[in-house]
Amino acid sequence: MGLIDGILQELEQESHTTRRVLERVPDNKLAWRPHEKARTLGELALHVAIVPGSVAELVATQSTVQAPKFTDPSPKSASELIPALDEGIAKAKKLLGGMDDAALMGTWRMMKGERELFALPRVALLRSIMLNHWYHHRGQLTVYMRELGVSIPSIYGPSADENPFA
């Protein structure tokens, strides 16, 4: 079993949890934001949906990339979220599935012009950005949803609204 197998297994498992969260995003609240500096619900939900595929694209590129211009697109409808998640997960599996341990341990660099922003093994980038960053924003999304009175699904155990152990 290679390094990528554990990452892909975790991605698959967490995609089901992310799907349960995204399925509950209310269509009529996509423009809501908890603070003027915060993303809207729609922007955050779409970000959560596309992170795996977007990060996999970066990881699969050459060892040095220029920092992308980060934008926060918003879905026109909550019905776009699950297809975006499915597309991102499929893209991540396809791009990462063939990577061997040598490629995953290879150094990946992000630059801003001539300045190196960071350099780390691809597998570390997958762990920190594709997975941990994804979980962070999924948690943030559940806080937005709680503020809007949306029922929160079980994620790693019971939520105040759902108990898979009962």
Features:
166 residues; mainly alpha; three-stranded mixed β-sheet; 5 helices; 52% helix; globular
Please provide a written account of the structure:
By secondary structure, the protein is mainly alpha-helical. It has five helices and three strands; from the N terminus they run H-H-E-H-H-E-E-H. It has a three-stranded mixed β-sheet. Strand 2 and strand 3 (115-121) form a beta hairpin. Helix 2 packs antiparallel against helix 5. The longest helix is centred in the last third of the chain and has 26 residues, at 122-147. The protein is globular, with a radius of gyration of 17 Å. The relative contact order is 0.20. The mean pLDDT is 94.
Short description:
52% of the residues lie in helices and 10% in strands.
Alpha-carbon distance between the two ends: 36 Å
Q: Total number of β-strand segments?
A: 3
Which strand order does the major sheet show? Answer: 1-2-3
Whole-angstrom Rg? 17 Å
Oligomeric form of this entry?
A: single chain
Q: Please provide the ordered H/E string of secondary-structure elements.
A: HHEHHEEH
Give me the number of helical elements.
Answer: 5
Instruction: Summarize the main sheet.
Output: 3 strands, mixed
Topology overview:
Elements: H1 3-22, H2 41-59, E1 64-66, H3 81-97, H4 101-105, E2 107-112, E3 115-121, H5 122-147
Parallel strand pairs: 1-2
Antiparallel strand pairs: 2-3
Helix pairs in contact: 1-2, 1-3, 1-5, 2-3, 2-5
